[in-house]
């Protein structure tokens, strides 16, 4: 039974989503496109918010809970055709200088086991770090590595709104192989 939704599409608890697409953004970051299995509307969200996941990872007795930022802009959730949430997840290996530390459990699960057609249990969008659209001052977006995911959502939203709001986006990466969304940003 699907959870009930309010008028904005938000739901309580977990809801089943299907992975509708998967794109490699860099050597370590892959985007996963999620659509609701029940065919209902996606919940609205603010640029910068995240989704919660309840993951059934092989070898673990209990579901693993994780959160990932929505990297698509809010308008992508409301397109009549192709409405989706995009998550852009970095594969986290064991640290090179400390290989006995295990690699990222859920990020590696996404990269190694989640394919187009996979289903995931997802909580509604939430979070207090988001673009405040009611403000008129300049916007400074500052990020490093995969920390650009909320910034991409915010930047794409600002561009899509055609607002004349001064915006600076400053982003650092280890090298060109790590630069997710490099072509998109150019």
Please characterize this protein's 3D structure.
By secondary structure, the protein is of the alpha+beta class. The chain has a single domain, classed as Beta Barrel (Elongation Factor Tu (Ef-tu), domain 3), CATH 2.40.30.10. Helices cover 14% and strands 29% of the residues. The chain is built from 3 helices and 8 strands. The protein has helices at residues 105-113, 149-161, 182-185; strands spanning 14-24, 29-36, 50-55, 64-69, 85-90, 119-123, 139-144, 167-172. The chain has a 6-stranded antiparallel beta sheet. The longest helix is centred in the last third of the chain and has 13 residues, at 149-161. The radius of gyration is 17 Å and the shape is globular. It starts with 13 loop residues before the first strand and ends with a helix. 30% of the residues are buried. The model has no long low-confidence stretch (mean pLDDT 88).
Short description:
The protein is α+β, with helices and mostly antiparallel strands and 186 residues long. The protein has helices spanning 105-113, 149-161, 182-185; strands spanning 14-24, 29-36, 50-55, 64-69, 85-90, 119-123, 139-144, 167-172.
Give me some keywords for this one.
186 residues; alpha+beta; Elongation Factor Tu (Ef-tu), domain 3; 3 helices; 8 strands; globular
CATH superfamily: Translation factors
CATH architecture: Beta Barrel
> What name is given to the CATH topology?
Elongation Factor Tu (Ef-tu), domain 3
The number of helical elements comes to 3
> Could you say which structural class the secondary elements and strand pairing correspond to?
alpha+beta
Number of strands: 8
Strand order within the widest beta sheet: 4-3-6-1-2-5
C-alpha termini separation: 44 Å
Low-confidence parts, pLDDT < 50 over ≥5 residues?
none
- Mean pLDDT across all residues, rounded? 88
Rough outline: globular
Largest sheet: 6 strands, antiparallel
Strand content: 25-35%
Structural domain tally? 1
Order of helices and strands: EEEEEHEEHEH
Please tell me how large the radius of gyration is.
17 Å
Tell me roughly what share of residues is in helical segments.
10-25%
User: According to CATH, what is the class?
Assistant: Mainly Beta
């Amino acid at each position: 039974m699907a959870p009930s939704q309010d008028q904005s599409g938000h739901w309580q608890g977990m809801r089943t989503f299907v992975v509708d697409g998967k794109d490699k953004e860099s050597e370590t970051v892959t985007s996963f496109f999620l659509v609701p299995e029940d065919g209902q509307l996606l919940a609205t969200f603010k640029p910068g918010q995240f989704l919660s996941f309840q993951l059934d990872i092989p070898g673990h007795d209990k579901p693993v809970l994780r959160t990932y930022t929505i990297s698509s802009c809010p308008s992508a959730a409301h397109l009549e055709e192709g409405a989706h949430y995009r998550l852009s997840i970095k594969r986290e290996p064991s640290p090179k200088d400390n290989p006995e530390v295990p690699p990222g459990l859920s990020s590696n699960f996404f990269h190694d086991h989640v394919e187009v057609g996979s289903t995931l249990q997802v909580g509604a969008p939430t979070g207090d770090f988001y673009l405040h659209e009611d403000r008129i001052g300049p916007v400074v977006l500052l990020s490093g590595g995969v920390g650009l995911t909320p910034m991409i959502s915010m930047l794409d939203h600002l561009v899509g709104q055609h607002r004349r709001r001064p915006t600076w986006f400053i982003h650092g990466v280890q090298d060109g192989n790590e630069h997710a969304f490099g072509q998109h940003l150019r």
